## 1
Amino acid sequence: MSASSLFNLPLIRLRSLAISSSSSSFRFAHRPLSSISPRTLPNFRAFSGTAMADTKDAGMDAVQRRLMFEDECILVDETDRVLGHDSKYNCHLMENIEAKNLLHRAFSVFLFNSKYELLLQQRSNTKVTFPLVWTNTCCSHPLYRESELIQENALGVRNAAQRKLLDELGIVAEDVPVDEFTALGRMLYKAPSDGKWGEHELDYLLFIVRDVKVQPNPDEVADIKYVSREELKELVKKADAGEEGLKLSPWFRLVVDNFLMKWWDHVEKGTLGEAIDMKTIHKL
C-alpha cells in the first residue's frame, strides 16, 4: 500500500482520544493527559506526499532548514482535536494544505509594556514563510512533546510561547512567567506565502503585559519596535498603501481587524479576563 493511500485511511482509532472543548478548560475525554504519551498519536510524516526537501530547497538557511525538519507540529481538526503530528516542513507545504487539509496548532503572542505599547517584530529574511513582514511579538507552534500538549487552560501553548520568546527575542523565562499569559481566544485561518509555502493554523491568541529585556535572535528577527495604538494604525495605513515596502503578516492583520483594538482597551483597564472566549474558534 502506498504512503498516499495510507494517508486517506479513516482515523477511527483516534476517537477514543477526542478532546472536549465545551469549556475554557480542555481535557482528554477518556484518559487523563498524564497517561497519554506523544507516542500515542500517529506520526503523519509517513503519510505525507513530501518527506524530504527537494533540490529547490538547497538554498534554505541552515537554521531554518533544521527547524523545518526537526520540529514536529501538532496536527488538529477544525475543533482543535489532536490527530497526530508531522514535520514543520510538511505542515507548511501548500500542496499538503490544499490536497490533504493539513491543519496545525499555533500561537500568537501580544506582549505589551507598562506603557501599554505593543511589541512588534519584523521576521528575518531567512524565514521560509513570510520573510521580512511585520507581525505581533512572537508567532510559532507548540511542538509535539508532553509539556506542549497539555490542554488544561492552554498550558501547553503557554509553555511553547515562553520557549519561543527566548528563542526569537532573548526574553528570559523569568520575565514572562507562564501564569502571566492570558489565552483570549482561538482563530482558524489559511494563508499562502508564495507558490510553495503557506500557513493553515488553529491559532491561540495570547496576551501578556510585562516590561522585558529584548535581545533579538537575527536568525529569527530582523527588527523590533514598540507601538502605541495610533502608531499601529499608521503602520496599517502604510501597509495598505504599499508605502516603504511595508507588509504585515496575514494572521496579525486578521487579529488587528477583528479583535485587537477592543482587547487593547482591556489591557489598559486591567480587565483582560473579561475578554476571554476559549469556547469559540473564529474561522477567518
## 2
Amino acid sequence: MGRIHICVKRTFIFVCVLIGIISTLLLAITLFGHGYFHQSEEIEEILPGIVVLYVLEAATLVLSIFGVYGARKEKKWAVVLFSVGMSLASLYLFVECVNGYQSKHEMEELTREEHLAMMPLSGANQTDLEGLYNMQTNFKCCGLVQGYQDWGTDIPISCLCSDEDSTDFKCVAPGNNTRFVIHYHKSNSSEDDDHKGLMDENMLVYEKPCLPILISVERSAISLGIGIFVALTALWDVGVVLAITILCQMRRKVDVPPVIFTSQPPQYRELCDTAECLT
C-alpha cells in the first residue's frame, strides 16, 4: 500500500509540473500575441479572449504550484484547492471546445461573406487591398473566387508567379488585355507610380483563388486549437483524478489507529493448578 501511495504521489507531482510548464508556455505565447496585435484594428474584438486566456493560464499555473506543495507536504487543503480549481477550469475549457466546434461553420461563412463583400476587387478600399496583396503573396494565389479574373483588366504584382514558384504552384498566363500593376505605399510614391504596368507576354500568375485556401487554413487552425484544448482538458482531468486519489489515501492514513510498541515485558500473573492451589 505504501508503494502505491508513493507512485501516485510522484505521478501527481509530475502532472502538476507538466501543467505548470505548459501554462507558462501558453502565457508567454498569449503575451507575445497580445503585443503583436496591440497596434492592429482587430485588438478590440480579440481583447476579451486574450484576457480570458491570461486569467485561465495564470490560474492553472498557480494551481499547479499548490498541487506540488500539497503533495510534497501532505497538505490536504492545497490538494483540495487544486482539484476544485482544475475541475472548474477543465469544465470551462470543455464548454469552449464544444462552442468552438459548433461555431466553426459559422466562422467560415462569416469569412466568406466578408471577403465576397470586397468584390469587385478593382473597387476595394486601400485597407482591403493591403490585406489581399499580403494574402496573395503568402498563399501563392490570385483573386478570391475566379482567380486572376477577379481583378478585371489590372492584375496586381502580388499575383505574379516567379520562376521558382512555377515549379511548385500552378501558374497560368493572363489574357492579352491585362497588365500587371505594381503596388507602392502612398508615402513612397506618387499616384502615377501606383498604376505602372509591366507588359510582358511571358509572365504567369497563380491559378488558384485565395478564398478557398484561406477558409481551409482557418478550418485547420480551428481544428488544431480545439485539439490542443481537448488535450489540455484531458491532462487537467488526469491531475484531478490523481488529486482525489491522494485525498482518499490521506483520509485512510488518518483513520488508521496508531500502533504503540514498548520495550518492557507485559505484566502477568502465573496461574497454578487447582490441586497445588488447595495445598
## 3
Amino acid sequence: MNAAIRSLEVADECCWRTGTMVKYFCCAGLLRSSWDQVCIAFWQRYPNPYSNHVLTEDIIFREVTPTNCLKSRRLLTKTSRAPRWMEPYLPKQMASSAYIIEDSIVDPQKKTMTTLTWNISHARLMCVEERCEYQINRDNGSWTEIRREAWISSNIYGLSRAIQEFGLARFKTSVTKTMKGFEYVLSKMQGETPSRSLAETATERARETALAAKEKAKDLASQAQKKQYV
C-alpha cells in the first residue's frame, strides 16, 4: 500500500483574510484505500510511529447536521521546536509545544471530507493554515485522493520571509509523515504488516528537501540581520 504525493504549486500570494504576503503551497496525495477506510483511519491515526510530535488530541464539540454531515472540532497539542538561528529573536520562556485547532466536516452522501487546521499559539511568529479535501479518486473508485493547501505567514519584521521558508520546509516534511501515518494505520486496519522501508525512503528524500529549504532560510535570516545594522 503506497502513498503518493505530488506538489502542484508553491507561490507567494496575498492572504485574503489579513492582506499580508504569505507563502502558499499546494499538493495532491493518493492513498490506495477506499474513501470509507480513509475516513475511519483519519480518526484512528494517532498514535502511529510517524506522529511522535502529536502529544494530545481532544474533541471540543461534534454534531450531525440536518443534512447528515458530521462536523467536529478538535484541539491538538504538538511539539514545536524552533531552529537555532531563530532562537535569538524568540521569547526566552517560549513554550516548546503548540496548540492546533482542527475543524472537519464529513459528507457521507457526497463522499467528501474537508478539514481546516491552524495554530493558535505562536501565531505572531508563524501561522500555518491548512485545508484538505478527501474524495474518491476519479480514475479508481477504490482509491482516495487528497488535495492539500497551506498558507504560511509571519509578522516578524525583517525575518518574515526566512520564517516562511522554514515553515514551508517543515510543512513538507509533515505532509510526508502524515501520509505515511495514514499508510501505517490503514495497513493495520486491513490486517497487513506495516512496512517502514517505504517510509524511511520517503522521509530521507523529505529531509534532503527540508535541509535545502532550511539553508535558504538561514541565508535570508542572515541578510535580514545585516540590514538591521546597516
